[in-house]
Write a structure and sequence with these properties.
The protein is an all-alpha fold. It is built from 20 helices and 2 strands. It has a domain of 222 residues. The protein is 69% helix and 3% strand. Strands 1-2 form a two-stranded antiparallel ribbon. α3 runs parallel beside α14, α10 packs antiparallel against α14 and α14 packs antiparallel against α19. It is globular and about 70 Å long. It is a multi-pass membrane protein. It is found in: Cell membrane; Membrane.
Length: 504
């Protein structure tokens, strides 16, 4: 649906980046008027989503959209190009910004958080940089806004201002900046040195590079330089960031930061290396199996965590590597699964974090062991948690079913039976560390046979938070029964087009 037909197609890119940026500074004017401030945030988020919908409509209609802001040096500048993978990420991020804002209104007020204006301001800045990443036309543009995203989210991680928050923020900033400067920057420079280009191009730009050692090194530099993908051992920033308020965790794990990481890896694989070149690179299998190890090890660590947000954090580390594995399989079907997992994991994981925050606001409990019987007093929240958990596991009738299906089929198509086995075992581990939580909440009792929650005055979280987690829960169902639009969008990617029919 094109709601911006009066705007030049290329200008829609500028609007997508500028609208949240302008909204961020306007809401500063309403610092002392929370109702107006939050109305501005919601209006800005909604406007952005309508712009992204128009971009998506143009994409389906094969309308060319590209623009350049400035030329940094001959032939290279800050340029933006619309392509299907970026549109998918932009749709997910812009839609979930609306829902996360609704949730944050209930959470931030219910938890009596300080510095709420700063929170919404930095959130908008982060979304602006995400839009720029989505539509980046070359590696230089991607790198610049990747760094801006890191810097704009740092105040959100340290929002509480406690020693623990500051320590978590130092880890967050330290890991992400060090990996991008030590690895990603050199990957970008190396790509330009051996190809003479940094532009994203269908099929890749390295086909004429004969030096396999250089390509092998570049692949490793990209995979570890994009630290937001949280491949082990550069994953510690993600659990460390759990000191942030839950809406920030939702931003980190579903809307912006981690998805920017795996999106960037997938985009580099498709538009810099290309599937055919990737198959011949010596380090492809090495990074593939490191990704598979991350899937399993982080799932095992998640099982040991009693703190709910810590368990969900390590679950995210695992699920991100599903996307990395899907990219490195160099299979159109696996890449379809990886791209689809950006959306399906987003709605499932954001639901789980919304529930964790609702539990914190209503009961002030963080540990799973303290939540026995909680479903009797917070049935909506725990039912939503069950829905999100089933989606992350990948069971029908939830969204995660399709992305995991494509990933597994892609692994088998690539003759990587071990990877297929890893994905299946990981899903079983998902069951082990996620499903016991709602089961205990609804059916378990304390030692005296009566849940302590039955005797408490604990109620559900504030209404805005319940509305938000209700919407994302419905999203888990919706993407199972109606995944076609996303699959059709993914199928517009030149390297994937024609590899599967639009019905999936």
């Amino acid at each position: 649906m094109n709601l911006w037909t009066f705007v030049e197609p290329a200008s829609l890119i500028n609007l997508a980046i500028i609208i949240p940026l302008v909204g961020a500074f306007i809401l500063l004017l309403a610092d002392k008027q929370p109702n107006i401030r939050e109305a501005i945030t919601l209006t800005t988020a909604t406007l952005l989503f309508t712009v992204v919908l128009s971009i998506a409509d143009n994409t389906f209609n094969r309308v060319d959209m590209q623009t350049q802001w400035l030329e940094l040096f001959p032939g290279v500048g800050l340029s933006f190009v619309v392509e299907p993978l970026g549109v998918l990420f932009a749709l997910v991020a812009s839609f979930l910004w609306i829902i996360t804002t609704i949730y944050a209104i209930g959470y931030m007020r219910g938890h009596h958080e300080k510095n709420q204006t700063r929170f919404f301001f930095c959130f908008a800045l982060a979304i602006s940089s995400v839009m720029a990443i989505c539509f980046s036309g070359n590696l230089i543009t991607l790198f610049v806004f990747y760094e801006i995203l890191t810097l704009s989210t740092y105040p959100l991680v340290t929002h509480a201002g406690t020693n623990a928050a500051k320590k978590g923020g130092r880890t967050y900033l330290g890991v992400l900046l060090s990996t991008s400067i030590a690895f990603l920057l050199f990957a970008v420079i190396g790509t330009w040195a051996v190809t003479g280009s940094v532009d994203f191009q269908a099929g890749g730009i390295v086909q004429d590079v004969d030096n396999k050692f250089i390509l092998a090194l570049l692949l490793v530099l990209f995979c570890y330089g994009i630290g937001k993908a949280a491949i082990m051992p550069f994953h510690r920033w993600l659990p460390a960031a759990m000191v942030a308020p839950t809406p920030v965790s939702a931003l980190l794990h579903a809307v912006a930061v981690v998805k920017a990481g795996v999106f960037s890896i997938l985009k580099v694989v498709i538009y810099i290396f290309g599937f055919e070149s990737l198959k011949d690179i010596p380090t492809t299998d090495i990074m593939l199996y490191i990704g598979a190890a991350t899937v399993l090890l982080s799932s095992l660590i998640a099982m040991t965590k009693d703190n709910l947000k810590a368990r969900l954090a390590y679950s995210t580390v695992s699920q991100l590597s599903y996307i990395v594995v899907g990219a490195l399989l160099a299979s159109p079907i696996a890449a379809t699964g990886a791209a689809l997992h950006i959306a399906t994991h987003a709605v499932g994981k954001i639901t789980l974090f919304f529930c964790a925050g609702a539990i914190m606001v209503a009961s002030h409990k963080k540990n799973i062991s303290e939540m026995v019987g909680l479903g009797r007093t917070m049935p909506i929240t725990m039912a939503a948690f069950a829905i999100g958990a089933i989606s992350i596991i990948g069971l029908p009738p939830m969204a995660g079913t399709w992305s995991k299906w494509f990933l597994t089929i892609g692994a088998l198509e690539a003759d990587k039976q071990i990877i297929a086995a890893v994905l299946i075992v990981s899903s079983l581990l998902n069951i082990a560390y996620l499903l016991p939580i709602p089961i205990k909440a609804f059916f378990a009792k304390s030692e005296d046979g009566v849940s302590s929650w039955c005797r408490s005055d604990v109620k559900e979280a504030p209404l805005p938070s319940l509305i938000a987690l209700g919407i994302t829960s419905v999203g888990c169902f919706a993407l199972f029964f109606y995944p076609q639009p996303l699959i059709e969008l993914i199928n517009l990617i030149p390297s994937i087009s024609g590899s599967l029919d639009s019905g999936g």
